[in-house]
Amino acid sequence: MIKLHKRENDEICSECAGPVRRGRENHRLPLVGDWGVTLEGVEITQCVRCGRRGVSIERLGPLMRGVAAAVVRKPARLAAPEVTFLRKHLEYTGARLAKALGVKGPSVSRWETGREPIGPSADRLLRALVLIHDREADRFDPVQFESIEEGATPIRLTLRRDSKGNWAVAA
Ligand SMILES: [Zn+2]
Fold first, then answer.
1. Which range of residues forms the domain containing residue 103?
2. pTM for the full model?
3. Do 126 and 86 meet the contact criterion of CB atoms below 8 Å apart?
4. What is the pLDDT of residues 98-143, one digit of tens each?
5. 34 and 55 Cβ atoms separated by less than 8 Å
6. How far is the CA of 15 from the centre of ligand 1 (A)?
7. Greatest pairwise CA separation for the chain in angstroms
8. pLDDT digit string (tens) for 35-47?
9. Is residue 46, in this structure, part of any structural domain at all?
């Protein structure tokens, strides 16, 4: 649902010079392949005349940390796009991640293409690397690792800005 309201100093459409209105709506942000997250109440602009739309997503860094924090806490084995997301979040190449996890080079690409599930130890070690990277380790209870079960479905996440403007997982 788009709720558009007129604002002072509305811009002009860069496409057709028509009037542009602003509003907020839920926005699907793709992250890896078909997998992505839903963001609540993102500011959008839409040209009244030609329909050209723009989306502005603020605080992308904290948003990615929020997604990573939710992924490392999921109770099912990491799915292929989540492995890719966490590797990129660490700013690692596939080869570097393989070294860090102590696995053979091609393993990482097999996990990321979904040809092979990530092993249970590598799954947990990858999560731990992300927790350390984001300085989240002291806010994480390692007991959560005990409940990780099989599973190949990526997490479905909706995030919204909290009162401080940070992205938080919507209840
Ligand atoms: Zn336009």
1. 61-155
2. 0.85
3. yes
4. 999 999 999 999 999 999 999 999 999 999 999 999 998 998 999 9
5. no
6. 5
7. 59
8. 999 999 899 999 9
9. yes
